[in-house]
Amino acid sequence: MKRSAPEGTGAPANQAPTGDTTRAATDAHGHIDAPAGRTSSPGRPPSLRDVARLSGVTYQTVSRVINDSPKVRDETRLRVLAAIEQLGFRPNGAARALASGRTQVLGVLSLGTSAYETPSTLEGIESAAASAGYTVTFAGTRAPQLAAMRKAVHALVDQRVDGVILIAPLISIDVDALPLPPSLPVVAVEGAPGSRVSAVVIDQVGGSRAATKHLLGLGHRNVWHIAGPQGWFDSRGREEGWRSALAEAEIEPPPLLVGDWGHTSGYEAGRILSGLAEATAVFVANDDMALGLLRALHEGGRRVPEDVSVVGFDDLPEAAYMQPPLTTVRQEFFEVGQQSIRLLLDQIDGRTSAETRPVVPTRLVLRQSTAPPF
Amino acid sequence: MKRSAPEGTGAPANQAPTGDTTRAATDAHGHIDAPAGRTSSPGRPPSLRDVARLSGVTYQTVSRVINDSPKVRDETRLRVLAAIEQLGFRPNGAARALASGRTQVLGVLSLGTSAYETPSTLEGIESAAASAGYTVTFAGTRAPQLAAMRKAVHALVDQRVDGVILIAPLISIDVDALPLPPSLPVVAVEGAPGSRVSAVVIDQVGGSRAATKHLLGLGHRNVWHIAGPQGWFDSRGREEGWRSALAEAEIEPPPLLVGDWGHTSGYEAGRILSGLAEATAVFVANDDMALGLLRALHEGGRRVPEDVSVVGFDDLPEAAYMQPPLTTVRQEFFEVGQQSIRLLLDQIDGRTSAETRPVVPTRLVLRQSTAPPF
DNA sequence: TACGTTCATGTGAACGGTCACACACTCGTC
DNA sequence: GACGAGTGTGTGACCGTTCACATGAACGTA
């Protein structure tokens, strides 16, 4: 029933491509047509062949037109474009992909999208991809279990995406264990160093050093740190920056507090710190935890910045409106997204990019949550 | 270069259909090859035919196996599965889509993804879609201009997605003006009432009424409102709920303040309200603006909730950690995502869902930003 | 013994494009 | 006046599946 033979359109094949303007005019479909719609389709959307038939050329010529081939006479092109418009023709991506071997789709593999950073990075990815003519598909996993990740990879591979961006900032994720075809271009965001994939990294260490040194420079004798969960590249980098700045000042680091990125864990760390009179400066691994800390400090009767100075990391939009406005380290997530696409397209197009591991800078944004001690 | 004739296998054009088991056995390239990987592929990923050849059946049988057809002998199935495993075969989605007419991909059309609500909804969409065997593709626009939206729609249509979820809470967006094929299932999240698409809506009005009545119930003589930008369904619904609650109490609504959802606009509205002694209760259209308001009130020396009561909308994760913890109206974004997928799948599978316009409830979450006046 | 059934597998034709090449024309050139 | 070089357009094969149907073997049953 589906596969019916092409059948008597009644129109004899025209030999002279007259390009008759009169015809074009009379047939101008600019008029307000019946409410039903412009394409009186029998069911299946129009194909190259339908357009070809209507405009009196072969499907190949139509193909040339939709691909902007220069080898088409202007007159012909116009005729074809009119037919395309009239029929509401849109090329079939699946057929294209099958024939050409390229899908013009990029895959993003991530571990959940509710954190602020991910969607923001995604925006960068999406916009950069779009301007290069690519669409973006997501395959998420909430759990960083290998099995789930494999499944997500399969979804992408089955779709034959032209490239993959891997947002998997967990140290435990072994990129090489993922069932990615060796020929598939891959770019990792944060992490997976040493493996075959190139990566975009954020200058975590630099930002953390700047934050810690800022507090030290204010005159604090020591700086406490609320770290992110173990196993994250981000946590590690930030802790490292903090340690290195302290080491440089020859200060023995105080005990490390560890959170899980969430507000609550920052709050809990804050309960502990509230009781410690010597804790006059705290560098928190992200703004969310910093918010929790701020609240705990407030409840504990310790004023910020008079009694305790706080520096966060991320520069979320709300950081400027916290109580007090939070001094923090800004990360350019959008740029991360853009850069990762750039890198990926380089791989796809066989360009050998000079830098395989671009570092996106961070910068300290001073607001009102820090002050000299006393 | 790509289309090289099948060559140098030494095998003369075989007249016997490929299913020759003997040949398959001798020619089995399944031998343990160099550590490089399991598939000694010449370039192109393995296809049904490759698997068929290796396992001594026809491509059709392999097709049956990967589609779990019951009409395959167990022994055969095992043999095929082994070959699939050995070759690392993965079905080609494009070819599948072309032949079957279904892509198993759902499209999401939105206007940017950095707001909290969108990614959260997206998560719901993604997880529900995944468990139904669908992948999700995004087509974003930052600008709600029709031209940009059309382009995004085209990206989805060209991909031949099986259905579309439209996140476009702007009243001005005319769904029917989008170049969506009439046969394509579409579900809108919030809005676009009256058009051919079904929609998932959030009980904005109910939530707002609850918020306003709560403030009134506390003894406030009046309730001010900081609304979202004009042109959003959300803004409208929240304003409506507020108005209706006031009307019910026979209170003349105070002048409306209008923001743009951002922290800053809430802050600015707050500067105004700080100077107004009679403004003892404020219902803000979202938590972000509420945060700005809180900050402005603090700077203006007005205590919350002692001098001014504040209720927000959304229940962002940070609401509980604001200063003071914010009483707000909770929206279940994740559920919105799930519901929209459910509705969409109903359309795709031709199920006639009982409800075409499910309403996701909201609920007032009491915290510490409200109190009786004085 | 012949014969319809059932189960397992094979066959050929789509699906809607792209690719490499072949085929007319129309020129300018010697 | 035949010839090589563009142009623009057509032709056939192929991409990797699914679909509808054909075929063949094993099995009762008349």
Write the layout of secondary structure elements.
Two copies of one chain form a homodimer.
Chain A lengths: L20 H6 L21 H8 L3 H8 L7 H14 L5 H8 L4 E6 L6 H15 L3 E6 L5 H13 L4 E5 L18 E4 L8 E5 L1 H14 L6 E4 L5 H16 L8 E2 L4 H12 L6 E4 L2 H13 L9 E6 L12 E5 L1 H16 L10 E2 L1 E4 L9
Parallel strand pairs in A: 1-2, 1-3, 3-4, 4-5, 5-11, 6-7, 6-8, 8-9, 9-10
Antiparallel strand pairs in A: 10-12
Helix pairs in contact in A: 2-3, 2-4, 6-12, 8-9, 10-11
Chain A binds a DNA duplex (30 and 30 nucleotides) through helix 3 and helix 5.
Characterization of this structure:
- The structure is a homodimer of 374-residue chains.
- Chain A is of the alpha/beta class and 374 residues long.
- The first copy, chain A, folds into three domains: 71 residues, 434 Repressor (Amino-terminal Domain); 128 residues, Response regulator (Rossmann fold), CATH 3.40.50.2300; 129 residues, Rossmann fold, CATH 3.40.50.2300.
- Helix content of chain A is 38%, strand content 14%.
- The first copy, chain A, has twelve helices and twelve strands.
- A six-stranded parallel sheet of chain A has the order 2-1-3-4-5-11.
- The longest helix of chain A has 16 residues.
- The first copy, chain A, is elongated, with a radius of gyration of 29 Å.
- Chain A starts with 20 loop residues before the first helix and ends in a 9-residue tail after the last strand.
- Chains A and B meet through helix 5, helix 6, strand 2, helix 7 and helix 11 of A and helix 5, helix 6, strand 2, helix 7 and helix 11 of B.
- The structure holds a DNA duplex (30 and 30 nucleotides).
